[in-house]
Fold:
Amino acid sequence: MIVFVALIALSATGRAEMPIAGTDSMGYAHLANNILEHGTFSLSYSAPFAPDAFRTPGYPLFIALCLLIFRSFFSVAVIQNILAGISAVLVYRITRFFVTEKFSLIAALMFALEPSGIYLSNIVLSESVFTFFLVWAVYSVLKKDGVAWHVGVLLGCAALIRPIGLIVAGIVIGFLFFKKQFARGVVVALCCVVALTPWIARNVLVFDTIGLSDVSVRKLFSYDATLFYAYTHRISDAEASDILRAKLAVQTGVTISTMTLRESSVVRDFALGIIREDPTSFAKFYTIKTIPFFITDGFTDTARKMGFSWGSSPHISKLFLTEGVGGIFRELRNTRGINFTVYGFGVLAWMGICIVMLYGALYVTWQQTHYRWEALFLLSIVIVTAFLTGTVANARLRYPVTPYMFTLFAVGIFHVRRSIVSWYGK
Structure:
């Protein structure tokens, strides 16, 4: 809440926008306004209101409810801060399944003080609400004696906020079946489907297509295929975008700017065709583009959005693809002053967190501890989310899985400390 007040002050000085900041935030706000004023889910600014399937309805409905009750977008930020606080408590409770209170508190504090999370909780963006639903569902699954139906509803709501939640739901259901909790798994799956059915039915009626959103197809075309095309043909991202958009229009008659869910299969097939030209190179390209998910410094990015900037930061994955390791070191040598210090510290800190996180998950698995499969369950959520993020990896998209990263980090340092104490005690 202190950051909430600070952002209001910065907003008044013009250094930071609050609570609506950036095109994504404005899009969510506009969808909510159209729901309240025109009763339609559309990004259009005037009639006829074209139905939208890029966003899912969960978060715009949340904003609309806040506006209906409190008449202010600031209420969205206030409630998101409350949800973030509850999420921190749930992180503590999840970590307690693995380690002691002291180390659980470390995980909860890391989550509560993560710069990207603090910023996102105070802006009209979906991450903090999405994170809340996910972490509540995961806690309920690990609790084992939780009611199964509400886990399915929570996961369905998460998928209606961000479609990637549907993949996490699949991981949860798979975990329950793996643990031979078949009844719980079936109930979770059915309740999740029930929660999603009205929106899917709407898309079938409007677009004649079964699906939640066309966001994954837009990512596949605008980022995966386009950036890969730029990489393989040694041209700029902008040039690659212009070329592929023109080819798409000529070959299919579809333009990416006017694409709806109805045309998404055509665009998907076109983008996959670009990738299939050299799948081995794409695998290498995509893997390297995923690296920022694990090392991106959220503090530098957040500071820039709040109006503070110390210069540009190196684009690690792009440098590695185009110039190799030598290019990264050359760029780092040219990055001096406070920007180098802040960026370097952030990258090293997140590298350390990820190494300890991986150690924690593998240690409890190797030692055959009681919660080894639960640790791998949390790690799988992190890895799968990172993989799906891929070419758009950043601190904002990493935030929803930081609860599990910090939990496994706490598990790692707990066992490192215990090993050190045991070694010195001999």
User: Anything to note?
Assistant: The chain is about 75% helix and 0% strand. The two ends are 48 Å apart (CA to CA). Confidence is low (pLDDT under 50) at residues 1-14.
